[in-house]
Design goal:
This protein is an alpha/beta fold and 474 residues long. It folds into two domains: 234 residues, Periplasmic binding protein-like II (D-Maltodextrin-Binding Protein, domain 2), CATH 3.40.190; 196 residues, D-Maltodextrin-Binding Protein, domain 2 (3-Layer(aba) Sandwich). It is 42% helix and 12% strand. The strands form three sheets. A five-stranded mixed β-sheet has the order 2-1-3-11-6. A four-stranded mixed β-sheet has the order 8-9-7-10, with helices on both faces. It has a two-stranded antiparallel sheet with strand order 4-5. The two termini are 32 Å apart. 48% of the residues are buried.
């Protein structure tokens, strides 16, 4: 996955694409979520294109590849079983991968299902290897309503060349989980503490520090640690954005990380004071996400940054919790993981695969998937339904997951993500765990320099001239 990416995506191109999608969505006659019914109960199979069947009337044989938590996979497996039982057009064979890495290993080896789940992190590589076919026109023909029913951020994330390359299924932003027994905002306000006026829509980093100190005070929560922020590029990204910074020198065609910029250095210095604090953060030997979750479940940690995938485990643990947005340094921001179903251009049945794709993103399929508690659906009609909100269960303010999407920051399309993260994350962790004073400007300059060895660099004018001369010499 190390090939240099083709630079396609621009802000203007995405704007043109989304305008087209919105207009196309308004022409559809289907209901919400691509299901064709306002209540999402009728099967998308009934509106599928009859062109999926062969001239002899035999069903097309299709493959679907995905991964996920076991309950999520079970929900999709049941959906496939319903499809196979009802459809006269196609029969689907399900392949379940262990994880994203397992999926990409098969795809890189040439084993590409007709429809397959993909992470946004891998989109650039898939595009470079011509393994996606744009789906916007195909889904519009099947009355999938892009205008109202899908997260704009998710659509942007999988857009390139003014086309929707894959159909988003989930968009999972980072939020803050907090222990409601350790942090009581009403009691804090009564004591004159600075608390957010509406903690489920926005709050500041300074207010988060007040809450962390409250939770660790022997007179109040007496927790061992106040807040956990993962010491990685993904862990600090939202805070850099909220401090007015950027991850890269260019958000369309990056050649370097930009952590040494003044805005990023200032933001890093502010959050590192907390991440390095023995009183407010976890001990250095416990600074990883798994340890943070265990500490949170035991009541030893008051707050941690995480995604929706943590909800089922936390429910089982018995801890009392709720969710809030990422606290902003200067403004609100979050980052997250987006996944989508992509269509193999070499599919044996284009119409059949498009029909299957429309079915997979319908309300009928996505409601049971959302009900597992592991994902935030890109299908907004499902995200606003009780299948996702689950009012009778924790967290009480599940709507925070969807509300915070308005502040979601999307990183550039890169083929070098894995190499970049494996190279810079140890250095970011080192700034947290080293015992002596941290020279943040120096350390971030080193990180940025390392990133330039990984990311594609523009050709120098001399190299371009030499290349032109060599070409002219034939």
């Amino acid at each position: 996955m190390g090939a240099a990416p083709r630079r396609r995506r621009t802000t203007a191109a995405v704007a043109v694409l989304l305008t087209g999608l919105l207009l196309a969505g308004c022409t559809g006659t289907g209901g919400t979520g691509g299901s064709g019914d306002a209540d999402g109960s009728a099967s998308a199979l009934t509106s599928a294109s009859s062109s999926a069947s062969t001239a002899t009337g035999e069903r097309a044989e299709l493959t679907l590849g995905l991964w996920g938590a076991k309950p999520v996979v079970r929900a999709y497996r049941r959906a496939v079983q319903r499809y196979n039982a009802q459809s006269v057009l196609a029969h689907v064979t399900l392949t379940v991968w262990k994880d994203r890495e397992d999926a990409m290993s098969d795809i890189e080896a040439g084993d590409v299902p007709d429809i397959y789940l993909a992470s946004r992190r891998d989109l650039a590589w898939l595009l470079d290897h011509d393994l996606t076919k744009p789906v916007d026109e195909l889904l519009d023909e099947r009355f999938v309503d892009f205008g109202d029913d899908y997260s704009r951020d998710a659509l942007e994330a999988f857009s390139s060349d003014r086309r929707l390359q894959c159909m988003p299924t989930t968009v999972d932003p980072q939020v803050v989980y907090y222990n409601t027994d350790l942090i009581d905002f009403e009691e804090m306000a009564a004591k004159g503490k600075d608390v957010p006026s509406d903690p489920y829509t926005s709050w500041t980093f300074d207010q988060a520090l007040v809450a962390a100190r409250w939770a660790t005070s022997p007179r109040h929560g007496d927790a061992e640690a106040g807040i956990y922020i993962d010491p990685s590029l993904g862990g600090i990204a939202a805070f850099l954005y909220s401090g007015g910074g950027q991850l890269f020198d260019d958000e369309d065609s990056p050649t370097s990380l930009a952590l040494s910029s003044d805005s990023d250095v200032d933001a890093l210095e502010r959050i590192l004071k907390v991440m390095r604090s023995s009183r407010l953060s976890l001990p250095a030997d416990e600074e990883n996400q798994a340890d943070a979750v265990k500490a949170f479940e035991k009541g030893d940690l008051a707050m941690m940054v995480g995604t929706r995938s943590m909800v089922p485990e936390l429910r089982k643990s018995g801890v009392s919790f709720d969710v809030m947005p990422i606290p902003g340094l200067d403004s609100q921001a979050t980052v997250g993981e987006t996944q989508a179903f992509c269509l193999d251009p070499g599919t044996s049945s284009l119409a059949g695969s498009a029909d299957l794709l429309a079915y997979l993103v319908s309300d009928e399929v996505m409601r049971p998937v959302a009900a597992t508690g592991y994902v935030v659906p890109a299908n907004q009609s499902v995200a606003l339904s009780n299948s996702f909100v689950q009012k009778s269960q924790q967290p009480a303010h599940a709507s925070t997951f969807t509300y915070t999407l308005r502040h979601l920051k999307t990183a550039p399309l890169l083929t070098e993500w894995d190499e970049l993260l494996s190279s810079v994350n140890p250095l970011i962790e080192g700034m947290v765990t080293q015992t002596d004073k941290v020279d943040v400007p120096l350390q971030t300059s080193i990180i940025d320099s390392l990133s330039r060895e990984i990311l594609p660099q523009p050709e120098s004018s001399e190299e371009s001239s030499d290349g032109a001369s060599a070409g002219s010499d034939g």
